[in-house]
Amino acid sequence: MPHQDFLRRLPESDRALRKRDRLQQRLHVDFWLLLLLLIITGGGLVVLFSAGDQSMATIKRQGIYFVLAYIAMFMVAQVPVHFMRRLAPWAYVAGVGLLVAVILVGVGAKGAQRWLSLGGFRFQPSEFMKLAMPIAIAAYLGQRHLPPVFKHVFFTLVLVAIPVVLIVKQPDLGTSILVAASGLMVLFFAGLSWRYIFAAVAAMLASLWPLWQFVLHDYQKKRVLTLLNPEADRLGAGWNIIQSKTAIGSGGVPGKGWLQGTQSHLDFLPEGHTDFIIAVLAEEFGLMGVLILLGLYLLIVLRGLTIAIRAQDSFGRLLAASITLTFFVYVFVNIGMVSGLLPVVGVPLPLVSQGGTSIVTLMTGFGILMAIATERRKVIR
Amino acid sequence: MSEARQFKDHHREARLFFGRALFAAVIIVVLTGVLVVRFYSLQVTHHDDYVTQSDRNRVHVLPIPPTRGLIYDRNGELLAENRASYTLSIVHERVDDLGRTLSVLGELVEVSPTDIEKFNDQLRQRRRPFDAVPLRYNLTEEEIARLAVNEYRLDGVEVHAQLVRHYTHAELFAHTIGYVGRINERELTSFSEEQHQRYAGTHSIGKNGLERSYEDELLGTVGYQNVETNARGRVLRVLESSDPKPGKDLVLHLDTQLQQKAFEALEGHRGAVVAVDVKTGGVLAAVSAPSFDANLFVTGISFKDYRELNQSRDLPLFNRFLQGQYPPGSTVKPVIAMAGLHYDIVTPSDTVYDPGFYRLPNSSRLYRDWKRRGHGTKVDLKQAIAESCDTYFYDLGHNMGIDKMHAFGYQFGMGEKTGVDVPNERRGIWPSRDWKRGARGVAWYPGDNLNVAIGQGDVLATPMQLGVMVSTLASRGAHYRPHMVASVGGETVEPELINQVQVDDAHWDAILEAMEEVIHGTRGTARRIGQGAEYHMAGKTGTAQVVAIAQGEEYDSEALSERNRDHALFVGFAPYDDPQIAVAVLVENAESGSGAAAPVARKVFDAWLLDADNQAEEP
């Protein structure tokens, strides 16, 4: 009874493939996705070893995060998709509650208040919201007729706006944009009319000036100005971007060789082990390394979209597509910022940059993808 | 909730989603393409630019300053050396919080308020960026160790061995060798591009004396090191280097012992002594007293020390033998007498009646002789010089006129810079009609002739000029440019004859005999210094008025304040038959050339001619 519809399209003789499919089904694992993730996290450790001053402690810590993240992924992959859908409103409410708590009793540093501290354990609710948001919106829109009508679009926008405003207040512009994107993406995949999309883009362009004038903080404006002209403040705000472009450019096609990057090893490149790690990769492994990494990311994203297309219902489709697209946005924003295409916002390079929270969140997201991919298929007639 | 109850059109929704997913995939591929293009642009198109920039980041050219040339006296005694000294300096650009760094340093090593004041002064001056500014010199081993342990707290703080100039006889040679000091803002601005390169890594420059005039030779050639540094500027390895070439050593004509003796002979008086090698013009001693510790200036003198030196009434910083312009008084008489003989104004046997004063024709003004009763009825040339008879020279000056006196004296270097190899020389005044018209705006009066003939009035000369003058007399007309440096980097500096005074031998005999009579004659003004001498000398005393004595008044030393008393002068040479050393002595406000200045010369002669050590060194 299950996947009849699906299997009919496969060659009858390929029994091995069917066997593999059944194994994937039982383990709730997507082998392609898992393989790509293993390659990228393994390669990431190699780059991190060089970027983190060849400290084994850094590698161990990152390794532990990876283990935890893979465990989280496998566990989330086991959760039935319909259960996620039912959990969605509660996750959303809990996420918003935590964000309010951050504003009230949060802790932070450098003028931003982003964490909740529970008995020494630090937790960043905006990170949780990155997943709660697409789940909630997908659950909401998945139950409606698609494409959504104006009323549903409006409610969706309200649902997106509440946590985003709370995150902007922290302030954490980078994360708020990503959270907003993960919600709006669902709207896009739900078939939001192109008229709305064009109108929104037009409105956004029109609001740039008031945004610049009244909303953005000075340090945020400075980042944008720095992007436009990094030479204006060579030793200050422009330093990071100049040094990272120098690292990338001097790597050339073959790169300077593993552990041979002068920009990173002589400390010219700041944040080489976190946000700017692709500059280390580009310096040491050259354009070849960059193309391989971009290729891997592209394959992951395309695999994610494939999973979304094959999902059983609208909720699965929307959620899988949103998670996948958000992942690509991370990739694009980070690499764009390090190579000087986008302003510097604090977005780590997914699966490669050092740091536990981002990895666990991402892998949890892939766990959701795997759950959707391996959902027992209903025959629809 | 009406629509929820309706059937969802799953196929339509799936198709719709497929379209959107396809669109997203296209966007993703396009954006990935943008990234690829971006990296291609950075890593391929602009690769070379970024390689250059990356190298410029990590590779720095560090200049290696050359070792400054050493300075020796004629006997090979080291006068100016370079001592290794551990210096603590701060690169301001690499320090986040200077106040905090200074306070941390204050806990680790002794930093006096003067050090901080000097440091701040230098910080305010324009510097090369990332140039280390010294805070403390002469760190002890213990201090170096303490700094090394705390290095991690002290970004931008550097300790390095530096060669610092040291003068072994700092006070004795302060006015001849001079001193080096830190390159200041004014010097830095005036540097040419080439000089900026030559002085890369060098912090000091000759400020005064030989250190300044031989700066180019002493400096040497800068070396370079290409080093790889990290972002904090710490040097990780040396990629390539070229060695610096040390500066050339100087060997001086000056003799430390003679210099010492001359200095001591002044017995604490303000004054100057110049001793010249008659045969070469080499300066054997040049003393200006009081002097100062030249080492104070090397690492930057403190404001307090400088004020003390600068405001002292005794003017220790003032170079008396080169910049002090004094009326030479009677010391010019041999030259005036020689001019008289040369121009046939007088013969050695002509005599003058000296009643104790001289009166110009048709004038009531009396020009007094220093001796109230006069020198007798028949004063000839020899007596006039030996006893320093003013009346004889009034008469001679009147008969000869300024033009001849000026032209003749000029050949002995009067009124012109001697050209000695120490900077900031003054030229004195050897008056002429033109000079007076230009400087005073009035015509030449007959009375002026009389003043010039006895070295008074407008006549001014530096002790160095007097040394050259007497040396020219001693050598029978060989007027050498005086010079302190005998060899530069092993190459001998050849004596330079400026001119040869052409006068009959008989005239030289007459004048030199008269000068011998000054010391060895029974009535010579300096006969006291001739007593017990193992060799014969010749010379001339001088006593120069500092303030004019009004007509009809007499010089009363008691009534005059100490600073207004007459200067005592003496010029002379020895031995008489084979002149080797010529000496000019000036003792400020010591009143008597014979009593105060001549004995100094005798001590210098003795030291030079009798000291066994010096004789042994003579070639």
Account of the protein in words:
The complex is a heterodimer of chains A (381) and B (619). By secondary structure, chain A is mostly helical. Chain A has one domain. Chain A has 15 helices and 3 strands. Chain A has helices at 4-7, 15-27, 31-51, 56-78, 81-105, 125-142, 150-169, 173-189, 194-215, 218-228, 238-251, 262-265, 277-310, 314-338, 356-373; strands at residues 107-109, 112-118, 121-123. A 3-stranded antiparallel beta sheet of chain A has the order 1-2-3. In chain A, a hairpin with a 2-residue loop joins strand 2 and strand 3. In chain A, helix 5 packs across helix 6 (125-142), helix 5 (81-105) packs across helix 7 (150-169) and helix 13 (277-310) packs antiparallel against helix 14. Mean pLDDT of chain A is 86; it is low at 1-13. Chain B has 619 residues and is of the alpha+beta class. Chain B folds into 2 domains: 60-251, Penicillin-binding protein 2a (Domain 2) (Alpha-Beta Complex), CATH 3.90.1310; 256-308 and 320-617, DD-peptidase/beta-lactamase superfamily (Beta-lactamase). Residues 1-5 and 615-619 of chain B have low confidence and may be disordered. Chains A and B meet through helix 11, helix 13 and helix 14 of A and helix 2 and helix 3 of B. Chain A: The chain crosses the membrane at residues 31-51, 63-84, 90-109, 149-167, 173-190, 197-215, 285-306, 318-345, 351-373. Chain A: Peptidoglycan polymerase that is essential for cell wall elongation.
